[in-house]
Write a structure and sequence with these properties.
The complex is a heterotetramer, with two copies of chain A (about 325 residues) and two copies of chain B (about 400 residues). By secondary structure, chain A is of the alpha/beta class. Chain A has two domains: about 180 residues, Thiamin diphosphate (ThDP)-binding fold, Pyr/PP domains (Rossmann fold, 3-Layer(aba) Sandwich), CATH 3.40.50.970; about 130 residues, Rossmann fold. Chain A is built from twelve helices and 14 strands. In chain A, helix 3 packs parallel to helix 4 and helix 8 crosses helix 12. The N and C termini of chain A lie far apart (about 45 Å). Chain B has about 400 residues and is of the alpha/beta class. The chains are: A alpha/beta (about 325), B alpha/beta (about 400). Chains in contact: A-B, A-C, A-D, B-C, B-D, C-D. The structure holds thiamine diphosphate (2 copies) and magnesium ion (2 copies). One magnesium ion binds next to strand 6 of chain D. One magnesium ion binds next to strand 6 of chain B.
Chain lengths: ~325, ~400, ~325, ~400
């Protein structure tokens, strides 16, 4: 076990993947010499050389489309989009090819590739550096979309993603990169993709979230327990595609009440899908309307306005109390 | 000193002098050349003729003929509703066949949708071409041992895959190469640019083979780009461009061989512009009389690669009328058999769309698959596959 | 009034827009000389010239990004993506600029532009020609996403979209292009964007849909009335962004039961959002789980398998009966 | 004749002959040139010197100085936490200032994020630059009468807007032009390619001005593209490329003027590569010691455009030490006032994110706005704005 932040944990997973499988290559803008703008790839080019950790020209479609070609040839490319807000430059490659090659070729070719991208607000960054658009990828069949929430699961999920034979969008909550440390096992550890975790058990209300929002959610759960004596169950999705319906609906069947929290815009977001699944499977258990505490259907504000904008502990506890009082 | 726009306050006294002054011209190192061996009028540049032996010459002739007859057959099948919309390659047989045959088995060929001869040559069963246009994913499944990519529909996107394949070859130290087809229209897309730029930066073993067939649906080549040739676009990426007569199988073969050799010997990528012509419709859904003249088509018909090559081979004594007949009959018979195989294997299970999406289907997908299966059974679209009781209605 | 199919109705709207406002320009691949691959722009280049109806090179990002520039200069570009499946080549321009310019410049610049794109299955087309991905756009703040369902509303909504000062993604159900004819008024007619229509009143069940799926939905409503004596209310959304919450929740408050139908994949689709809104506003009225009859979270199959795949009248009536029997 | 790969069965007897044979070299019409007037060593090419009058010379000098001092001030403000991450333009003042001043009021300037001098010259209040980096959308709002686009963050995307603006000008018959800035890194993006290609096809009045500052964050120019110059990329689009000394304000001014004149007179686009250097960090979040040497930076510091221009103007008698002092003081005072204005106007209403999204907010958005407002009021982040009773809790 070693205490580390998420950046180090991701670095550890990349290091392990590079060491265990010589087909793994990393590529992206400024990931080599510069070690990544967030230093996630620190030390890796030095250790594995320029043919395993590759600095690319500035072109996201080429990074993604090039990864497709590499994966077809049998490599396992792990690419980095410098920010998720610039991944749309290669979105056509994701929709038209990354997500389709296995199905299109009836299983003849699979694409063992991972596209890492830092997402989300809260780091006082300029425009296009703060959005959350996981729903685009979750709505695209043929991908896995994984979103860790802490150093330990970040490492385990990234390693699992690299080992997975299918393409994974690995959406990294950059607000958590250096937010806190956790004990991370020394031996390579993985977690299954598509399995949500009940990170706190409770009986009165379920709060469902993922990524950077897990922090205010857990604070809210504490606050509700301490102040209101309410027993909150908290579900960390960890993957929004696949979405772990059983864990979600099972929890709500128990508590009868739910609040969903994410930073991304509300319309057609993950929250909508979670509600739909609850209604489809657990409507009879539902004792109150489900509330969504999410980003609004507006552009993520520039950073002077972001603190006010982001879902906060207060907003979550308030919604929870509303739902509990229904 | 006040803020504002004092500069613009008075009209600009443009420094006309600057227009006339001499500057240092910059010399561009990579070169752009033109290659033609078997001219449109049948004249051969003997000094360049690769003089392929009889077997290979006939192989290439037959391959081009197969592409032509397959094309014709597909248009008929489309009219009969036995396949869907079809995009013919008529006129482009030399361009794609004489280049594909340069590639070794371990090389990769990355096609677009106008290279049926390439699939055939590389070992895809003929009926896969029919399957693709017939609406079956099976047409995108390369047989074991063949590792070319399937038809790529979104224009220019495959150029990045070709680049990535070549990148992987280079990283692995494999002395293979990639041949990537695309159209004149594709050169306008961002992906084309990014592919060539990366290929140049990493000096990748890839040949970008642009079939400039003069049209991108209704847009003529001249309106696609102001660049006089497509070949010269290579200069933007620091490597050579070669423009060649795409209806001349000898030029295509020689030009591609040279580029592939260069790629394999570490010399980096080449951009080949094969000047050819789409003699037929864009697809069977297209009406080219709306945008191009009969005269233009007729001019190009005179440059048809198949009669041109036939005449050349007759001249060299490699073909004779009897042999031509035999090859024709042989091609048609093989084709007919493929059509039969295509039509005898049309039981497309709709549930297959769940089967190949991931290595492991997730619980939610499995749930959806069951929902779909139940519906299909109920609607009589598939036979009941398992006892109903066990299944939960979602 | 004149009887026409949707292609003619769209052509009429474009013709009217070009005639009434000389800032309107059309641009796209093969829309001029060739009159569009679906002939939606038939006759317009002849009538308005090559400076108003412009054939472009093959580059979707340039068509969209160029339209942004034109709109900034004061023109009203109406561009065509040949198929919605190729619009992702310009998706970054949509996400990063089309949707943001008004907000970014605090209202100084607006982008009066329309991006038309044929979407959806059912026309026996090759790969990438049959998808529905309206949820990508609906999830993107700053856009309107309009989806007509018949010749008359297609004309009225397209004209309204072109007149609208903000960007509109105009998603055309190509399966309906020549599917049926309707009387379309001679005088320019518009409809408000963001207002759903109750196209059939009923009391027992609400079916909510849009675009090409309105046809099997209306057939299903007939079938349910004729065979089961059930009174079905049918809501045609017409716009998925904005989404007309009032009309949806109002109808379900009345009927207590709902089925939602779309071709697009299910996860984070419009159906999920519709369910979420119903739960948020009308949970207490809900008498049964809501069912989604939608595309699955798989790639749209090649056309040999598409008839079996697409939501059908039978599948809709079956779901409706399930919901009614709950 | 059997199906399969007979061709590959035997090893290919590559036709080595073909390598050596002469082909017809293709002559490329557009030209690529190099321009320098005020050399790094201070020597002036008198025959090319535009000999700007004193007012204009001083205006340009002051503008460059303003850009430099603003830059320095922003780095301090960033360190003090008074703005966020900042991307300096140090070293690139000649490149952007001497080109922007060529544009008329009705022309459009389309910047990226390293042209603070352009905003200032064009009439944006100085504090808008601070607002942008300070996290306020207000920094993206051009004042009335100024119609440049705001800072564009996603690399190369603005090149398409510039192209579209020029397209609109041409369609409208307006004799204006567009000046579009981008970086060397931007040339790798698909958008750059598509913009130049459309500009070439329609012969649009646009000048693509690439500030080749040798680095794209940590990637050196040589690894960005294998093209020897960026200027020669114009050849791919059928128009001229001009490489010039970007630290030479005279060359920048003359070269840009010529390109803009050509654009306005219907001669179409030009690609200018201004060879310059990013003397500072990429942004304040960057540590360039990881990827470049002190020596490299020192070499370029000797080519700093501001001392170079100052020396030139001293030599021409347009500046003298006293005047230099005055300008310096004047610039600093103006800057100080702008910082004060910036800091006095920081009441960013979080509800504004709903205000400017559409001309008419929809009912659903209005509902969300109310939800947000209620939350902000509850959390004490804004003052209560209206009686609560009227409002429905969602
Ligand atoms: C990204 C994308 N945009 C649009 C289309 C529609 N489309 C299919 S073929 C074609 C023209 C292609 O022209 P070219 O590259 O010259 O190839 P050709 O068809 O002439 O062989 C177009 C616009 C597409 N398939 N992909
Ligand atoms: C599409 C996109 N990808 C990545 C980034 C992140 N990024 C910001 S600046 C930059 C380097 C740009 O280099 P260049 O074009 O040379 O401009 P310079 O910063 O040197 O002025 C990168 C990669 C971005 N802003 N946009
Ligand atoms: Mg073509
Ligand atoms: Mg740079």
């Amino acid at each position: 076990m070693a205490l580390m932040n998420m950046v180090s944990a991701l670095n550890l997973a990349l290091n392990e993947a590079l060491a265990e499988d010589d087909r793994v290559v990393l590529l992206g803008e400024d990931i080599g010499q510069d070690e990544g703008v967030f230093r996630v790839t620190a030390g890796l080019m030095d250790k594995y050389g320029q043919d395993r950790v590759i600095d690319t020209p500035l072109a996201e479609a080429a990074i993604i489309g090039g990864s497709v070609g590499m994966a077809l040839y049998g490599l396992k490319p792990v690419s980095e989009m410098q920010f998720s807000g610039f991944a749309y430059q290669g979105f056509h490659q994701v929709e038209q090819h990354v997500s389709r090659f296995r199905n299109r070729t009836r299983g003849r070719f699979n694409l063992p590739m991972v596209i890492r991208m830092p997402y989300g607000g809260g780091i006082r960054a300029i425009e296009h550096h703060s959005e959350s658009r996981e729903a685009y990828y979750a709505h695209t069949p043929g991908l896995h979309v994984v979103i860790p929430s802490g150093p330990r699961n970040a490492r385990a999920l990234l390693l699992a993603s690299i080992r997975d034979p299918d393409p994974v969008i690995f959406y990294e909550p950059k607000a958590l990169y250096r937010a806190f440390k956790e004990q991370v096992p020394d031996e390579p550890e993985t977690m299954p993709i598509g399995v949500a975790q009940v990170v706190r058990e409770g009986t009165d209300l379920t709060i469902i979230s993922y990524g950077a929002m897990m922090r205010p959610v857990l604070e809210a759960a504490d606050e509700l327990a301490d102040t209101d004596g309410v027993s909150v169950e908290v579900v960390d999705l960890l993957s929004v595609s696949p979405l772990d319906t059983e864990t979600i609906t099972g929890s709500v069947a128990k508590t009868g009440r739910a609040v969903i929290v994410h930073e991304a815009p509300r319309r057609c977001g993950i929250g909508a899908e979670v509600i739909a699944r609850i209604v489809e499977k657990s409507l009879v258990y539902l004792e109150a309307p489900i509330r969504r505490i999410t980003g609004f259907d507006v552009q993520f504000p520039f950073f002077a306005r972001e603190r006010a904008y982001l879902p906060s502990m207060e907003r979550i506890t308030h919604a929870a109390r509303d739902v509990l009082a229904f | 000193m006040s803020v504002g726009l004092p500069w613009q306050a008075k009209p600009l006294d443009r420094i006309g002098r600057a227009f006339a002054v001499p500057r240092k011209a910059i010399k561009i190192k990579p070169k752009v050349e033109w290659l033609s061996i078997l001219a449109g009028d049948g004249k051969v540049d003997e000094s360049l003729d690769p003089k392929l032996d009889a077997d290979r010459s006939i192989y290439l002739y037959r391959l081009m003929l197969m592409a032509r007859r397959l094309d014709e057959r597909c248009i008929i099948l489309q009219r009969q509703g036995r396949i869907g919309t079809y995009g013919p390659c008529r006129g482009q047989e030399a361009a794609h066949c004489a280049s594909t045959i340069v590639m070794d088995r371990e090389d990769w060929v990355v096609p677009t949708y106008r290279e049926p001869g390439s699939f055939y040559h590389r070992g895809w069963p003929l009926e896969t071409v029919l399957q693709f246009w017939g609406g079956f994913e099976e047409g995108c499944r390369p047989p074991e041992g063949v590792h070319d990519t399937p038809i790529a529909v979104p224009i220019a996107t495959q150029a990045l895959h070709a680049m990535g394949l070549a990148w992987a070859m280079k990283l692995r130290g494999d002395r293979h190469a990639v041949l990537c087809y695309c159209g004149d229209g594709s050169t306008s897309e961002g992906d084309f640019h990014e592919a060539l730029n990366f290929a140049g930066v990493y000096r990748l073993p890839v040949v970008f083979f642009v079939q400039n067939n003069q049209w991108a649906i209704s847009l003529p080549r001249a309106k696609q780009t102001a660049s006089e040739t497509i070949a010269q676009k290579a200069l933007a990426y620091g490597f050579d461009g070669l423009q060649l007569d795409g209806n001349d199988p000898l030029a295509v073969y020689v030009g591609t061989t040279e580029a592939v050799e260069r790629a394999k010997s570490g010399g980096g990528p080449t951009l080949i512009e094969a000047v050819t012509y789409r003699m037929s419709v864009h697809t069977t859904a297209d009406d080219p009389t709306k945008y191009r003249s009969k005269e233009e088509v007729e001019t190009w018909e005179k440059l048809d690669p198949i009669p041109r090559y036939q005449k050349y081979l007759l001249g060299r004594g490699i073909l004779d009328p009897k042999r031509i007949e035999e090859i024709e009959a042989d091609v048609l018979a093989e084709l007919a058999a493929a059509v039969v195989r295509y039509e005898e294997n049309q039981n497309a299970d709709p549930l297959d769309c769940f089967k190949y999406l991931y290595a492991e289907p997730s619980a939610e997908l499995e749930q959806q698959r069951k929902e779909f299966q139940t519906a299909l059974e109920r609607e009589g679209m598939i036979e009941k596959q398992e006892p109903r009781m066990a299944q939960q209605r979602s």
